[in-house]
Amino acid sequence: xxxxxxxxxxxxxxxxxxxxxxxxxxxxxxxxxxxxxxxxxxxxxxxxxxxxxxxxxxxxxxxxxxxxxxxxxxxxxxxxxxxxxxxxxxxxxxxxxxxxxxxxxxxxxxxxxxxxxxxxxxxxxxxxxxxxxxxxxxxxxxxxxxxxxxxxxxxxxxxxxxxxxxxxxxxxxxxxxxxxxxxxxxxxxxxxxxxxxxxxxxxxxxx
Length: 207
Hints:
The protein is mostly helical. The chain is elongated and about 55 Å long. Helix 6 crosses helix 7. It has helices spanning 2-12, 16-35, 42-49, 53-59, 63-87, 95-113, 115-123, 129-150, 161-174, 186-198. It contains ten helices and no strands. The protein has a single domain, classed as Tetracycline Repressor, domain 2 (Orthogonal Bundle). The relative contact order is 0.11.
């Protein structure tokens, strides 16, 4: 309960316009997550927000602008969570330890923190090419973190690094299709997934 109160208090400290914008984004993220990109209209979001559709366009000039904002926030939530988890590790933490910690943080953000993260994963493939391209800077910034984490596993063949990054992130994101976070231990899931994925990629790493 206190976490929700803190979020509400933080938003209350914002200006009315920014608080309203965040409310709209929250509603949009939930709709995109549950219904997909094409099925959601600006009218749907405006109705739930208790506003007229033309008023919604004051905050977001188009559905495309709204989608891009949700998609970028979805990646940012995961990235911030993973970076915080890695920053909390001691400087001498080994490669395997860092990878497992990052995987736990990614799954936690994906399943537990917000509608934004799962909306990003679920509708990215549904978007027109222009909207996917608009989200690429955020995606590449996040992929760069995993490139650094996995670089020690590709010493023998650096060309395999992009493929390995895609495999790790893809495997974690795919859990949205089969994991019920209410019934699953996400840390145990992360540890199991790490065991499976890391089994054959740490041969070049001594720690």
